[in-house]
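Batch manifest, entry 17 of 40.
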Amino acid sequence: MTGLRHFNCDSTPCSSSRSSSSHANHKAIIHDLRHSCATLLLVQGVSPRVVMEVLGHSEIALTMNAYSHVVPELQREAAQRMQAILER
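Output type: structure tokens
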């Protein structure tokens, strides 16, 4: 799982600086945990539909748009699996 980076929903890299407000920090941490959870589930091969349901998104497009940075990793893995099948 090398090369994974944490991104905001607008695809900009996350900054380590946070608001000084305790409430804002708490909300940011929860968001970070949700994002990390979704990213790790996708990388582990969990169906995007299941990740959508875990996050409570109403549409698969919301999930895939927010986590599109994970898709290249999933595509590489799918290609490697297909290659392994064809080499048998």
